[in-house]
Specification:
The chain has 11 helices and 2 strands; from the N terminus they run αββαααααααααα. With 290 residues, it is an all-alpha fold. The chain has a single domain, classed as Orthogonal Bundle (MetI-like fold). The longest helix has 41 residues.
C-alpha cells in the first residue's frame, strides 16, 4: 500500500467516526421513543397529568403551553377543553394494544402457512400462495375498509381483521426461508437420522427463522399502527369514547385552521413511533452486517 492510499484510508476512517457516533446517539433516541410509548401503553392514564376525558368548556382550544386554574396544559386543549397531552398518553394504550395484538396474530397465521407451504410444497404451496397473491393484488387499505364495513367498527373487530393485511407478507417470507432451510445440509442430515416432520419444523426450521420473524414483527407492527390510525381517521376504526392516536387526529381535523395542535401533535407522536421502530430495525441490520 502506497503512502497516498494509506493517508486516504485514514482520512476516510476519521471522517466516518463522527457519523458512527451520531448513529449511536440516534439509536438511543429511537429506543427511548419506543420505551416511552410502551410505558404509556402499560401504565395507561396513571402518568397523565389530567383525566383524559375530563371536560372544561371554558378552557377549549387553548394553545400548547397555556395555563388555567387546573395548571399547565403542555400540548394545549381540544374542542371540549380536555388536556391533549393526557389524551395522547391515554390513547397510546389502545393504539399499541390493537397494533400489537393484530401483529402477533398475523405473525402466527403467516408463519404457520409459510412453514407448511415451504416444507411440504405441492398443492398446499400452490393454494396458499395463490390466496396470498389474490389478497395482495387488492390495495391494502381498501381491503381493510371493506372488511370493517362488512362487520362494523370496534376494537375487537380491528384486532381480528387487521391481521388479514399482514399475514400474506409473513407467509411469503417464511415460505422462501423454509424452502432454503429444507435443502440445507443439517436438515437433510436430520432427515437421514429419521427425524419426524414435527421435529424438523420446530427444532431445525422454526428455530432458524427466529431472526427473520423478529424483523417481520417490527415491520408489521409499524404498518398496522398506521393502518389502525388510518381507519380511525376515516371513521372505520375505533369509535368514541375510546381514544387512539388516529381518532385524535380525526377529531381535530375540523379545527385545523384555528387549532393546528389537535391534529399535528398526535400525528407527530404517531410518526415518531413508526419511525423509531423502523430505524431501530435498520440499525440492527447494519450492526449484524458489520
Amino acid at each position: 500500500m502506497t503512502p497516498t492510499s494509506t493517508t486516504t484510508t485514514t482520512t476516510t476512517t476519521t471522517a466516518r467516526r463522527p457519523f458512527a457516533a451520531l448513529r449511536g446517539r440516534l439509536w438511543w433516541l429511537w429506543a427511548g421513543v419506543l420505551a416511552v410509548v410502551l410505558l404509556w401503553a402499560v401504565t395507561g392514564d396513571l402518568l397523565a397529568p389530567y383525566d383524559p376525558m375530563a371536560q372544561s368548556p371554558q378552557d377549549r382550544l387553548l394553545p400548547p403551553g397555556a395555563r388555567t386554574d387546573a395548571g399547565l396544559h403542555l400540548l394545549g386543549t381540544d374542542q371540549l377543553g380536555r388536556d391533549l397531552f393526557s389524551q395522547i398518553i391515554g390513547g397510546a394504550r389502545l393504539t399499541v394494544v390493537i397494533a400489537l395484538s393484530a401483529t402477533l396474530i398475523a405473525l402466527a397465521i403467516g408463519t404457520v402457512i409459510g412453514l407448511c407451504a415451504g416444507f411440504y410444497g405441492g398443492a398446499v404451496d400452490r393454494i396458499t400462495m395463490r390466496l396470498s397473491e389474490a389478497q395482495t393484488a387488492m390495495p391494502m387499505f381498501l381491503f381493510a375498509i371493506l372488511l370493517v364495513a362488512a362487520v362494523g367498527p370496534s376494537v375487537t373487530n380491528l384486532i381480528l381483521l387487521l391481521p388479514a393485511l399482514g399475514w400474506p407478507t409473513v407467509a411469503r417470507v417464511v415460505r422462501a426461508e423454509t424452502q432454503r432451510l429444507r435443502a440445507s445440509p443439517f436438515v437433510l442430515g436430520a432427515v437421514a437420522l429419521g427425524a419426524s416432520d414435527r421435529q424438523l419444523l420446530v427444532t431445525h426450521v422454526l428455530r432458524n427463522l427466529a431472526p427473520q420473524i423478529g424483523v417481520l414483527f417490527v415491520i408489521e407492527l409499524g404498518q398496522l399502527v398506521l393502518a389502525e390510525a388510518g381507519l380511525s381517521f376515516l371513521g372505520a376504526g375505533v369509535q368514541e369514547p375510546d381514544v387512539t392516536w388516529g381518532l385524535l387526529i380525526a377529531s381535530g381535523r375540523d379545527y385545523l385552521a384555528v387549532a393546528w395542535w389537535l391534529t399535528i401533535l398526535p400525528g407527530l407522536f404517531l410518526a415518531a413511533t413508526v419511525l423509531a421502530s423502523n430505524m431501530l430495525l435498520r440499525e440492527r441490520e447494519r450492526r449484524t452486517v458489520a
